[in-house]
Specification:
The complex is a heterotrimer of chains A (305), B (352) and C (503). With 305 residues, chain A is mainly alpha-helical. Chain A contains twelve helices and two strands; from the N terminus they run H-H-H-H-E-H-E-H-H-H-H-H-H-H. In chain A, strands 1-2 form a two-stranded antiparallel sheet. The longest helix of chain A has 31 residues. Chain A starts with a helix and ends in a 17-residue tail after the last helix. By secondary structure, chain B is mostly helical. In chain B, helix 3 packs antiparallel against helix 10. The relative contact order of chain B is 0.22. By secondary structure, chain C is an alpha/beta fold. In chain C, a hairpin with a 2-residue loop joins strand 9 and strand 10. The longest helix of chain C has 17 residues. Chain C is globular. Classes of the chains: A mainly alpha (305), B mainly alpha (352), C alpha/beta (503).
Chain lengths: 305, 352, 503
């Protein structure tokens, strides 16, 4: 294998692996920027990949599957809102509860719909969309499916929402100082609900990318901790959209490299690579120490006096 | 004039407390009943299979306790941590650390008699759990790094370590599967009754529940721990060394969670597999929350969760409903319980 | 329209439980005037203004804006009526820019560009004469600059009445000058300003008219030209005579606690204690008087081990307690009564546990908690200190007075050499207040040194041997209680008068 082929393959795989992480971490960015740590992300992504797959399978439309994931994820986000925003409960436990609920629910509903059949039901995934045609290198790297391109486009879009719309301004204010936001006449609760719904929808599409854009079916280990990776990446990204891109690409690159190196027969445990982003995040947290706190209101329920 | 009722934010009378879990269970079954209707099953029948049928035979009743054993331990681990204001989400990872220690000790201690080997297995698992809890604990105490994220990340890291070991040096030479070699017979936790998988680990778990109860309510350390959990500033004012107390809490919690790894390796599977835990560390959070962060309550909740686990298998066998019903019931129960606990803060008053 | 009041408040009554915060208070505001609202802490100034700004609802009374009766339910209503308020605690979002903070919640458009918003804010800044840097992040601004952002935020919403709640409390003198210049400009532009303060000289400097409140009651409204600082001080504190039980003896013991040149920072990193030196003798009560927020809280925190001083020394007898942890301070024989009762007890623990927690080693038998001893200790203290609670009650269920008795019991039963009492009677009813004061006098009689930090001037005067006055983080004077008058202390507390230190 020559170096160019290796690198081109590596970059292409990097983009693919990074895609669900971009969606998931951008989703978490919405929640945390509004002041809610959403540990429901793992379950919401899982639910998204299930709902997306189930609807696409039944309707033969991948896009309807994505739409269903968007709606399902938004509902999961709203349910997180009921517990963390309206009831003001501990965000850690609420979030884990949401993850456990939507994981269990997906598995349960999958069995109801598809039964215990031996044959794994599957759908045809989104087509590859070569952006640069047959141009060498570029053409091969940017031969991804549409969800990957949308995911990358979402980075500037989310940046624009965050820094160029009044909703984004309100969300940042609510996530930093809900008392001040309230005093300025903003509706803290509504802003958080909207942010959680958007966030949940994005997380779910990240999950649906795996079932509809990558694997073509719904398997039980489909998310496999990717939600927790996003929790790490958001810190790594310092809660900035552009940071999300770099973090996801770095993680994707390391994972892809690991896959490549395996095929070359290099004798290094691939798990060492896979655990690298987690280790790096912990080290980053240790170095940043007290300063690595994102939006100031995260974890603090807001109650009006 | 008709009397009017008003809800006021006042602590509810104390008799309300014990009724709340019962209310939560009822609400949970109403909600899950809707899912059951979706799968064309009779909810009442399903509830019977979940709640009652496992208790109708001796073997299945003991199986409830088998399922409850790791949850008793992770529940106790989470209880002592949460009660002391340390949000250890890492019981899952600490369990795997304990499991690795058990698998390793089980492989190398074949020559020791069980009297020595089994205590060493337990100690080793406890120590490994503590070790895995050490980094988040240090980061919390020395640098104020939030323990939730670090313990969560540590869970993922150890999964990779386990996977690397099972695909590498520990791969079973006999079968070639990614699992460790079977542990020596002398290191297996003995069965308690003939015809049941219930093993010594259950007793260990009960002892740990008792120990956590004892520490929290009968020792000065426990009083300090609770004081930190309930009011950090006031505890500091009254002379409690908050960082040291938090550190001890974190290590104790990790050690107890590590024991859950030992019981699963040395009591059930006899080798390490990467699916040794079915999310027991997270279910421990459910148990601790349902138990109101009281070790006895958490123990009762763990056994109840074990019942749901066992029951979801019988409902699956008898009615063809997926076993994942159990996961749904457990998660709904957690969320409902969280909400229902809020009722403790309200009273209904009659106003003329 | 000439001469019509912008605001008229008539017979405003507001009760909080048994406390009457505003008792038929009248207030009116002329167009284009700076009207000071003067009074001691707890006189009801802030309550009255919170009613005007819609943060509280009055129980009875009438509010008219430009002659029309209005009801104000929320700050939104207040702003719609042209009333803005800058409270003591700023409501700014630190990581956002000045411009973003100012337009937050006001713009109805879906999108915005920072540049356009900054230009708009710059225009407003020029128009109103309130100087801000629109593109700066609020977290990088000084307190004075942040205050100007708050002012501009209100003005940007087109208010013509601006309420400022103790605006100088957080400012250094130079910033106060800038603030006063700004207010002067605003007045010339026709804005009416309500200026809440307890500092006499500031009130005399900036205001056109002054309304004085005392104990929730309206004392009077005077023109600045018709009054003097002394007259105002009398209106402010001139209480009926009270039963002074001032001990006659001066400090006869030897100095037990010596504080030298203590400097400390508050939570925001501002200097809260500046070069504080104090001696407290055995068998005396040293009262520390002062208006809230002048460093007393930090002094209490430093002495109880909750805040580390930046420099200076704390010596108890022979022992250096400068950077000691709370447990070391306790073992050195210091009894501590915290300013915030909830900092002194863990609400979710039982009364018995709270009574034992500070001195746990005494309640251990065979390595276990001696539950019997803990309970016996609680029963004894409950009886000795007449606490209305049972040992197993959760501390949070107790009334303020009983909670305070729990702290007193725990502290005083150890026969401490030194007692640090921060605001020990704040929020207590008459009976409990009397009880606490009696207990402190008992300590003095026993030979203990007592440092009493209190905002209640009557309390300080009635039980102290000597009185130290704090103003802006410094001790501005120490005098024997027998020589102190309310008027003189009031002048010292409001920074008008300062005296040389005398021990």
């Amino acid at each position: 294998m020559d170096a160019t082929t290796f690198i081109v393959g590596l970059l292409a795989a990097t983009l693919r692996v990074a895609t669900p992480l971009i969606y998931g971490t951008l989703g978490e960015l919405f929640s945390e920027r509004s002041g809610i740590l959403n540990l429901g992300i793992e379950g919401t992504m899982f639910f998204g990949s299930f709902v997306g797959f189930a609807v696409a399978y039944q309707t033969d439309s991948l896009w309807l599957g994505i739409l269903a994931a968007l709606i399902g994820g938004a509902l999961a986000g709203l349910l997180m809102g009921v517990f963390s925003v309206s009831l003001g409960l501990n965000q850690h436990v609420s979030g884990l509860g949401i993850t456990l609920l939507f994981t269990g629910l997906s598995l349960f509903l999958f069995r109801i719909i598809f039964g215990e059949s031996q044959v794994q039901p599957s759908v045809d995934t989104f087509n590859r969309l070569p952006l640069f045609g047959n141009i060498p290198v570029l053409g091969e790297i940017f031969n991804q499916n549409i969800l990957t391109y949308i995911g990358i486009l979402l980075i500037p879009v989310v940046w624009w929402v965050l820094y160029r719309t009044n909703f984004g301004l309100n969300m940042r204010a609510v996530g930093e100082n809900p008392e001040a936001a309230d005093a300025a006449g903003l509706n803290v609760f509504r802003t958080r609900y909207v942010a959680l719904a958007i966030g949940g929808a994005l997380m779910a599409v990240g999950g649906a990318f795996l079932s509809l854009g990558d694997i073509g079916s719904f398997i039980f280990g489909i998310i496999n901790g990717r939600g927790w990776v996003c929790i790490a990446l958001i810190i790594f990204a310092n809660w900035q959209p552009i940071g999300v891109l770099w973090g996801a690409l770095l993680f994707g690159g390391v994972s892809a490299l690991q896959l490549r190196l395996q095929t070359t027969g290099l004798n290094l445990p691939y798990e060492a690579f896979l655990s690298l982003p987690y280790v790096v995040t912990i080290i980053a947290l240790a170095i940043a120490g007290r300063n690595a706190t994102g939006p100031a209101a995260v974890l603090k329920p807001y109650k009006r006096e | 004039m008709k009397p009017k009722y008003q809800i006021v934010r006042q602590p509810a009378p104390s008799w309300v407390g014990p009724l709340l879990p019962i209310l939560a269970v009822l609400v949970t079954f109403i909600i899950t009943g809707i899912f059951l209707l979706m799968s064309h099953a009779n909810p009442l029948e399903a509830i019977y299979y979940i709640m009652v049928s496992p208790l109708t035979s001796r073997v299945s009743a003991l199986e409830v306790l088998v399922k409850a054993t790791p949850l008793l331990l992770t529940g106790a681990a989470v209880t002592i941590a949460f009660a002391s204001g340390y949000y250890n989400i890492g019981a899952e990872g600490q369990l795997y650390a304990g499991a690795m220690a058990a698998a390793w000790l089980g492989m190398i201690m074949g020559n020791l008699p069980p009297v020595l080997a089994i205590p060493l297995m337990l100690l080793g698992g406890f120590a490994a759990g503590m070790l895995w809890a050490l980094i988040p604990a240090l980061l919390k105490v020395k640098l104020s790094v939030d323990e939730v994220v670090t313990t969560l990340l540590m869970n993922s890291i150890i999964m990779f370590i386990v996977s690397a070991m099972l695909n590498g040096p520990w791969r079973d030479p006999a079968s070639g599967w990614p699992q460790s070699a079977e542990i020596a017979a002398s290191t297996e936790l003995p069965r308690l009754f003939a015809g049941s998988r219930l093993h010594l680990g259950f007793i260990v778990a009960l002892v740990m529940i008792a120990l956590v109860w004892f520490i929290l309510s009968r020792t000065s350390l426990g009083l300090r721990m609770r004081a930190v959990g309930l009011g950090k500033d006031a505890a500091k004012f009254m002379g409690v060394n908050v960082p040291r107390t938090t550190f001890i809490t974190a290590l104790l919690s990790g050690g107890i969670a590590g024991l859950a790894g030992v019981t699963e390796v040395a009591g059930i599977h006899f080798h390490l597999i990467d699916a040794i835990s079915n999310g027991f560390g997270y279910t421990g959070i459910i148990a601790a929350t349902l138990g109101g962060l009281n070790p006895i309550g958490s123990g009762v909740a763990a056994i109840f969760l074990g019942l749901i686990d066992t029951g979801s298998q019988s409902v699956s066998r008898a009615m063809g409903v997926s076993t994942y019903l159990g996961d749904v019931v457990q998660a709904v129960l957690l969320l409902v319980m969280l909400a229902v606990f809020l009722l403790k803060n309200y009273q209904i008053r009659r106003v003329e | 329209m000439k001469g019509m009041n912008v605001i008229e408040m008539r017979a405003i009554v507001k009760q909080f439980g048994p406390l009457v915060a505003n008792d038929h208070v009248n207030f009116d505001l002329h167009p284009g005037e700076v009207h000071a609202l003067l009074g001691e802490n707890g006189a009801g100034k802030t309550t009255l203004m919170r009613i005007l700004y819609g943060l509280y609802q009055a129980d009875s009374g009438e509010i008219k804006v430009k002659g029309k009766p209005v009801t104000i339910h929320s700050p939104k209503d207040a702003i719609a009526n042209g009333i803005g308020m800058v409270s003591q605690h700023f409501t700014l979002v630190l990581p956002l820019t000045v411009a973003e903070n100012i337009v937050l919640g006001y713009s109805k458009k879906a999108t915005y560009t920072p540049k356009a918003v900054e230009e708009e804010v710059a225009k407003a800044s020029a128009k109103f004469g309130v100087e801000v840097n629109p593109s700066a992040l609020v977290k990088h601004l000084s307190v004075g600059e942040r205050q100007r952002v708050e002012i501009l935020k209100a003005l940007y919403r087109n208010v013509n009445v601006l309420i400022m709640d103790e605006p100088t409390a957080v400012l250094v003198p130079q910033e106060v000058d800038v603030l006063f210049e700004t207010l002067e400009r605003l007045r010339k532009n026709g804005l009416s300003v309500i200026f809440i303060s307890h500092k006499l000289y500031e009130v005399m400097k900036i205001s056109d008219r002054i309304t004085v409140l005392r104990d929730g009651k309206f004392v009077g409204t005077v023109k600045k030209s018709d009054t003097t600082e002394r007259k105002l001080a009398n209106m402010m504190v001139g209480r009926e005579t009270f039963g002074v039980k001032r001990p006659d003896e001066a400090c006869q013991g030897k100095p037990l606690l010596r504080l030298t040149n203590i400097t400390a920072m508050d939570k925001k990193g501002l200097a809260a204690l500046k070069d504080v030196s104090l001696d407290v003798c055995e068998g005396e009560i040293l009262g520390v008087a002062g208006v809230s927020g002048n460093g007393q809280a930090e002094l209490g925190h430093v002495l109880t081990g909750m805040l580390k001083p930046k420099s200076g020394k704390i010596i108890l007898g022979e022992k250096d307690l400068t950077n000691a942890e709370p447990s070391a301070i306790f073992s050195a024989g210091v009894g501590r009564i915290p300013e915030d009762r909830h900092e002194g007890v863990v609400g979710e623990l039982s009364v018995a546990e709270n009574l034992a927690l500070e001195d746990l080693p005494s309640f251990i038998k065979n390595g276990m908690l001696d539950k019997k001893a803990i309970r016996a200790n609680a029963e004894k203290l409950i009886k000795d200190f007449q606490i209305k609670a049972s040992p197993s009650d959760h501390a949070r269920k107790l009334s303020g007075g009983n909670m305070q008795k729990v702290i007193l019991a725990r502290t005083l039963s150890k026969q401490p050499k030194l007692v640090i009492a921060s605001q020990p009677t704040r929020g207590l009813d008459v009976g409990a207040t009397e009880y606490v004061r009696k207990k402190l006098l008992e300590q003095r009689k026993r030979g203990a040194a007592v440092l009493l930090i209190s905002e209640d001037l009557e309390e300080v005067m009635s039980i102290s041997d000597r009185i130290a006055v704090m103003y802006e983080g410094r001790i501005v004077g120490i005098l024997p209680a027998s020589q102190a008058t309310e008027e003189e202390l009031g002048l010292m507390m409001s920074g008008v008068k300062e005296m040389a230190h005398e021990a």
